[in-house]
Amino acid sequence: MLKKGTIDFYPVFGYTDERAAFTHFIHNWLPHRGVVVTRDDIPPLHTLTDLIQYKPTLLKEIGGYSPMEAIPGERFEITDTNVEKAFNLLLNKRVDAFHMQEVVARYYLKNHPEIQGVRLHLNLFPPVKSKMLGFSRRSPYFREKANPSYDPKVPISMRNPLTIMDENSTAYRFAKTLEELYRSGEIQAIIDKYMRP
After folding, report:
1. Is the pTM of this model over 0.70?
2. CB pairs under 8 A, 24+ apart, for 80-85?
3. Which residues of the chain does CATH 3.40.190.10 include?
4. Whole-number pLDDT of residue 129
5. Would you give the DSSP letter of residue 194?
6. Strands 57-59 and 74-76, how do they pair?
7. From 3.30.980.10, 3.40.190.10, 1.10.10.10, 3.30.230.40, which CATH number describes the 34-121 domain?
8. Looking at the predicted structure, is the pLDDT value of residue 44 above 90?
9. Among residues 104, 164, 112, which one has the least CA distance to residue 131?
């Protein structure tokens, strides 16, 4: 959808060279910490390798790196994974565990109080201060211009992009507003209100 411009942005989107062709990446300023989600028949895990003893079937993440790739076990793969499907697969015992961002899992569970028998295993991954938001280059709200700091001797990357956002675009103003909300503490207040139990 980002590639075609049918949506303007995706709030958490991992960088790849392929995605960079149709996406501009900006900080979303959300705190990110991965959690392992299991049914509550698996006791609290203290390390990721504690999961091995349960010989789990893991939900394979599509389109990105998962820190659970190092865990041996069967993989259940579907091409259109989303939060609802992941929890349904877990509760229907098609998978035993999956990796997800804590804020996403908490938000989903808070809005679906009927879901019982699930455990979030925290502190297995170090927190990441900020991840990226992917903004479609085909969005009517996005405009770009040549990056005056681009170094042709260095590969194109997030640190050395060929283009930057035009300061007069809505996407640029959106990025600046997100940063202001983070620095003022408003993003944390929203997380505490809507995503904490």
Report:
1. no
2. 83/108, 84/108
3. 34-121
4. 61
5. H
6. parallel
7. 3.40.190.10
8. yes
9. 104
